[in-house]
């Protein structure tokens, strides 16, 4: 099992035994591995320099130094690069102790938890997008330079996925709107706020965001050609059951625009009443009663009025989990090195806001 700490008793690195002795496992990148292989191939190559064509032979030590410098330049200058780690979990600690020096930052957690792969899983897609939206609103300046690169690389992959799959573009539009608003404020207030990196880089990122917004605005939904059973062919009670399983009012409205039958079902007062009761407490919607022209309560208008005043419940197919015994944050299907007798009793699902709160100091 790998060590969890970084001190004289627990160096925090994972070691592998080879024929040449023990070697440390480092963060890896496929592109960087190819570059290092090319560099190793020329470890004893004769290089011609100067007008007098003197020969200079590089030693193995020189090549190792060149490889280290190449690795640093790769991660520093290549904006498309991203750090990958073998373990998809991170130990969360907020202060230094005798066993562990330093603390875990939001940017470090963002780099370690492999959000780039998580967006390909439809169960985690909404979760990652919501997390990126919360970071855009309040935690963007707390990200390190490497974490910023990862953030925008993941955002780029999300936009491209939406353009290809046309999956939930409204959610991405809200994210980009919040991110552009935050960047406009930070760029105008440069000098007053802390922005890691050159101001021109942030201006280029803002221009990229505006381009993404334009692409999503021009996105045309492809009409699927299907000669089999369609949504309109289902009986009314099944369509009604589908609507009752939605937890977002905008999804209900969007589905109601498909056919006149679905529109009629989406305007059901009982449907919107159930939605209000699911998201809000009785004391909350009793303060915002909105009667209709017929004297009944307009639950649809109430839902959107309450949404502006109170947070709604969040539903995700899969979330990050936190082990209270080990203080480790991880994806449940990847697991973590837990030492508890019954690990399942120590697990706690982590909402996007809770993820942000874990790294506030």
TrEMBL record:
Its main location: nucleus. InterPro entries: F-box-like_dom_sf, FBX25/32. Substrate-recognition component of the SCF (SKP1-CUL1-F-box protein)-type E3 ubiquitin ligase complex. May play a role in accumulation of expanded polyglutamine (polyQ) protein huntingtin (HTT). Pathway: Protein modification; protein ubiquitination. This is F-box only protein 25. GO terms for cellular component: cytoplasm; nucleus; SCF ubiquitin ligase complex. It comes from Merops nubicus (Northern carmine bee-eater). GO terms for biological process: protein ubiquitination. It comes from the Eukaryota. It is found in: Nucleus. The keyword Nucleus applies. PANTHER family: F-BOX ONLY PROTEIN 25, LD30288P. The keyword Amino-acid biosynthesis does not apply. Keywords: Nucleus, Ubl conjugation pathway.
């Amino acid at each position: 099992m790998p060590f969890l700490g970084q001190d004289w008793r627990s160096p925090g690195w994972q070691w592998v035994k080879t024929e040449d002795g023990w070697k440390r496992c480092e963060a890896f990148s496929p592109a960087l591995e190819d570059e290092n292989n090319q560099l190793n191939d020329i470890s004893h190559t004769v290089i011609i320099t100067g007008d007098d064509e003197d020969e200079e032979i590089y030693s193995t030590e020189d090549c190792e130094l060149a490889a280290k410098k190449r690795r640093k330049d790769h991660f520093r200058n290549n904006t498309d690069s991203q750090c990958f780690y073998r373990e998809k979990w991170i130990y969360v600690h907020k202060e230094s102790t005798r066993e562990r020096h330093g603390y875990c930052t939001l940017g470090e957690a963002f780099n370690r938890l492999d959000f780039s792969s998580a967006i390909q899983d439809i169960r985690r897609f909404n979760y990652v997008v919501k997390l990126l939206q919360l970071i855009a609103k309040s935690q963007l300046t707390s990200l390190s330079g490497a974490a910023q690169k990862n953030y925008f690389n993941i955002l780029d992959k999300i936009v491209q996925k939406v353009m290809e799959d046309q999956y939930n573009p409204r959610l991405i539009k809200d994210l980009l709107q919040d991110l552009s608003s935050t960047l406009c404020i930070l760029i105008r207030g440069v000098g007053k706020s802390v922005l890691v990196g050159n101001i021109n880089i942030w201006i280029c990122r803002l221009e990229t965001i505006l381009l993404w917004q334009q692409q999503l605005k021009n996105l045309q939904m492809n009409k699927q050609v299907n000669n089999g059973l369609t949504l309109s062919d289902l009986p009314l009670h099944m369509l009604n059951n589908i609507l009752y399983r939605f937890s977002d009012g905008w999804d209900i409205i969007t589905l109601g625009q498909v056919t006149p039958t679905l529109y009629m079902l989406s305007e059901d007062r009982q449907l919107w009443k159930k939605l209000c009761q699911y998201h809000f407490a009785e004391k909350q919607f009793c303060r915002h009663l909105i009667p209709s022209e017929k004297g009944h309560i307009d639950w649809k208008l109430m839902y959107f009025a309450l949404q502006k005043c109170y947070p709604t419940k969040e539903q995700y197919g899969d979330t990050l989990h936190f082990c209270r015994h080990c203080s480790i944050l991880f994806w449940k299907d990847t697991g973590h090195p837990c030492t508890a007798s019954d690990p399942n009793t120590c697990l706690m699902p982590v909402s996007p806001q809770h993820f942000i709160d874990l790294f506030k100091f």
